[in-house]
Specification:
The complex is a heterodimer of chains A (about 350) and B (about 475). Chain A has about 350 residues and is mainly alpha-helical. Helices cover about 80% and strands about 0% of the residues of chain A. Chain B starts with 9 loop residues before the first helix and ends with a helix. Chain B is an all-alpha fold. The chains are: A mainly alpha (about 350), B mainly alpha (about 475).
Chain lengths: ~350, ~475
């Protein structure tokens, strides 16, 4: 697993460095070095788990069944492993690779990276760090809870001040992926189910976002929201898709974002102690902040008068672009309207991990 | 005299036979036959590798304990000979130049003499034999470094090397004299019983020994000769020096530490700990600012020596296996890069990193190979370099050196940065007059293909590592 985690890194460097735009060399180098730093710490954590587990295999399930990593080893290696995976999942002080990386990457690379790659972090934290070291997860989890809730709020606040469409989206990804880690750390079944649904839903939403931004950029050659205005009249299909994506992002019921966030917050609130409840309330305020930047963005760019006469000549989406947008929207809406089948499936699969976390 | 002792020395005797054949060929071959000199040399060396590939004898000693044999030594000697074969193939273009053509036979003979010296150094059972082997490996090497003697870089590098080598072997001999004074014998088998703890003379002997052999491995602070010598020497000689000379010295270091200095284990682990930290860090920091490709690879190989020492510090059998595997993988990756640098230097005389800008547009295959080799050196999966680094870290981790492994891991990030600088130069930086498309000759193609297969295959074919591990328990 670790090997393929690292294999995913180097092609990112080449993809962003060669085909990107803007500060691509700086962004590519920063992304690669930070993620390699994370994997360096991660491999130390993994080696620690391997040698401390007493089994002679690296099979995650076997180590979990044996379940006897000594307490001191857990306290050292849990932060290392969590940090190693968390950097990829946009944990607070180490999320800085994400905005520059997403913004400089070409469209398809951004879609893959934000939609797929960042979920590796959440998965790794859940599957490896917390499953194999439950005692340390219970004892040290509060530190990471604070960090992830900061990243949820901070990511949302940062997105408010951005003027570049891609940067707004990148910070929004930081915020949502932080929410995934936040939910995982709550350690009960509802919250964990919500985390997985959030991984799925955010992946679809952000892919949709980046695709649409790529289409808009291809036509107007600018991503600055101060220059875009009144696009609804010029490109109605694209604008409607973008509005739908924005509404899904802020958690409007009917779309998958609502299902995910609702499950997460309900699960988090099930804890009865003060610390968890206060943190949940703080994280919930991110919904409002998300609404601010999404609505600001949509209002400025799509509604209103057309400022730039050049834009009047632009064409709407072609059939292949329509197809890709429609597929993603159908998925988001399906997940939002009828989540139950997905909910049950996910709930059953996170159950063993949650059981291990709660008993110890 | 018991002639059956020579059966233990199969590798050395066959190498002497090869050397004799090449010497006679150089002496008496006609002009027409001389065209095939490189073919003859490569074929003979290839036959030598195949003949000596599988360890056949059981461990034993010859000549009253002077020469000691274990199956692992056959493995490392085969690895070194294999590297020499690749160097021979890469050197072919350089040797066919006008001013080196008449010296071709001398080149082969000198390289094989150093290889023979390394064989004796590896298989020694007595410190004097070890010293003889070391000298035999170093002195012809300085001649090789100064091979292009009318180019002043080469001569200067050769002078630097011989002076530093002489000084280090003087220090080494001084340490050995202390050891003799303290123990009364220089046989590897007898010394461990005679080492008492807290004896300052033995500790001083050990320190001088490290100083002497540290020169060969180019660990810090004995590394100052490395950059200038690597830059000044002809590129095939540099590649030989960086991989094979270093690999043999590290293997000998581990053998001696495990066998001879075993009672002093805590002391030498502390010393090696400090050496690893400064070697990796200083090697990485200095490599960041280099613009000349050969100098850059010199500093990179200093930091790689630090990683190899991570396999030494555990002093266990698994450390030995991971060290041998690391030497093999490092060899193919380094020889790949040096092969590319060598062919570019031969065709266009350009060695600066800035000249490599935009290489991807004109020479895509060479660029691709260099990229793979650099990623292997940096330790990126799925190349063999990742596995070799992983096993070395595992060996050190298992012996309990957790903080050291974390420091080494953080240093891999710095090393990734400077390796990526070269990748960036080739793929991303723009160049107005890039290096024009280069036509590689047959030997270079073969050697680079072998290196490519090694870089990709050695990690995936687990049989290599398993064979090495199986033999390491024979220590």
């Amino acid at each position: 697993m670790f090997m393929f985690y690292e294999i995913a890194l180097i092609p990112m460097y080449l993809l962003i460095g060669v085909w990107g735009s803007g500060k691509k060399e700086y962004a590519a180098m920063k992304l690669t070095l930070m993620l390699m730093g994370a994997s360096a710490i991660l491999i130390a954590g993994i080696l620690g788990i391997y040698f401390a587990s007493g089994t002679t295999s690296m099979n995650i399930l076997e180590i979990a069944k044996a379940g006897n990593i000594p307490h001191d080893a857990q306290m050292i290696f849990f932060p290392m492993t969590f940090l190693g995976f968390g950097v990829l999942g946009a944990l607070f002080p180490f999320h800085t690779w994400s905005p520059d990386g997403h913004a400089s990457a070409p469209t398809a690379v951004s879609m893959l990276h934000a939609g797929v790659l960042m979920k590796l972090g959440g998965y790794g934290c859940f599957r490896v760090a917390m499953y194999l070291m439950p005692q340390a997860a219970n004892e040290l989890g509060w530190i990471f809870l604070i960090l992830t809730s900061i990243s949820v709020i901070y990511g949302a606040f940062s997105a408010i001040v951005q003027t570049d469409l891609k940067y707004i989206n990148a910070y929004s990804s930081v915020s949502h992926c932080g929410l995934v880690l936040f939910a995982i750390l709550m350690m009960n079944q509802t919250a964990a189910t919500g985390a997985v649904i959030q991984m799925l839903s955010h992946g679809l939403m952000t892919a949709l976002f980046f695709a649409l931004i790529g289409m808009i950029y291809g036509r107007t050659h600018t991503r600055d929201i101060r220059e875009l205005s009144g696009l609804m009249k010029i490109m109605p299909f694209l604008s409607v898709c973008y509005v739908i994506a924005g509404l899904a992002n802020l958690g409007l019921p009917g779309f998958s974002g609502f299902v995910a966030e609702m499950t997460i917050f309900v699960g988090s609130f099930q804890h009865t102690d003060i610390f968890h409840r206060v943190i949940t309330i703080i994280a919930t305020t991110s919904i409002v902040i998300t609404a601010v930047y999404i609505l600001r963005l949509i209002g400025r760019s799509f509604y209103g008068e057309v400022k730039n006469p050049e834009h009047l000549k632009l064409t709407d989406a072609t059939w292949d672009e329509r197809l890709s947008a429609i597929v993603l929207i159908i998925a988001i809406v399906a997940l939002g309207v009828a989540p139950l089948w997905m909910n049950n499936m996910i709930g059953d699969s996170v159950l063993p991990i949650v059981k291990a976390l709660v008993i110890k | 005299m018991d002639y059956s002792q020579f059966l233990y020395m199969k590798e050395e005797v066959s190498l002497i036979v090869v050397m004799a054949i090449l010497f006679l060929y150089d002496l008496i071959a006609s002009e027409k036959a001389r065209k095939y000199f490189s073919v003859v040399a490569c074929v003979l060396l290839g036959a030598h590798i195949i003949y000596n590939l599988i360890p056949t004898s059981t461990p034993g000693s010859a000549f009253g304990g002077m020469y000691y044999y274990t199956p692992m030594m056959t493995i490392i000697k085969s690895i070194l000979t294999f590297g020499t074969l690749i160097v021979f193939m890469q050197a072919d273009l350089w040797l066919k130049r006008e001013d080196t053509k008449f010296k071709q036979g001398e080149f082969y003979f000198l390289i094989l003499s150093t290889l023979l010296g390394m064989f004796f150094m590896i298989a020694s059972g007595h410190f004097l034999m070890f010293f003889l082997g070391l000298e035999m490996a170093s002195i012809p090497m300085s001649t090789l470094i100064a091979f292009d003697k009318y180019r002043h870089n080469s001569a200067e590098a050769g002078a630097k090397y011989i002076l530093t080598a002489m000084f280090s072997s003087a220090l080494l001999l001084f340490g050995l004299s202390f050891l003799y004074g303290a123990c009364g014998t220089l046989y590897f088998e007898d010394i461990p019983a005679l080492l008492t703890s807290g004896n300052y003379m033995q500790l001083a002997a050990f320190v001088f020994f490290i100083a002497g052999i540290g020169f060969k491995i180019s660990i810090v602070p004995f590394h100052l000769w490395t950059a200038d010598v690597y830059q000044g020497a002809p590129t095939p000689v540099t590649s030989y020096l960086s991989v094979i000379s270093k690999g043999s010295a590290v293997f000998v270091l581990l053998t001696i530490l495990m066998k001879v200095f075993a009672p002093m284990v805590t002391e030498w682990q502390n010393i090696i700990y400090g050496l690893i930290v400064i070697t990796i860090t200083i090697g990485n920091l200095f490599a960041l600012r280099q613009k000349n490709m050969k100098r850059f690879l010199a500093f990179s190989s200093i930091s790689q020596a630090g990683y190899i020492l991570l396999g030494v510090i555990g002093g266990t059998a698994i450390g030995m296996a991971s060290l041998v595997y690391y030497v093999l993988v490092y060899m193919v990756a380094n020889l790949a890069i040096f092969g590319v640098i060598s062919i570019i230097e031969q065709r266009t005389e350009k060695v600066s990193m800035d000249d490599y800008n935009g290489l991807y547009k004109t020479n895509p295959k060479l660029t691709f190979l260099t990229t793979l080799a650099l990623f292997s050196l940096a330790g990126i999966p799925p190349f063999a370099g990742f596995f070799s680094k992983f096993f070395v870290f595992m060996a050190a981790f298992k012996s309990g050196f957790i903080v050291l492994v974390v420091i080494a891991l953080l240093n891999t990030i710095i090393s990734l940065y400077y390796y990526l600088l070269v990748v960036k130069a080739m793929y991303i930086n723009k160049n107005d007059n890039p290096i024009e498309p280069i036509k590689t000759d047959c030997y270079t193609k073969i050697s680079l293909t072998i290196c490519l297969i090694g870089i990709i295959g050695l990690g995936i074919a687990s049989i290599v590592y398993e064979t090495i591990t199986a033999f390491s328990y024979g220590m």
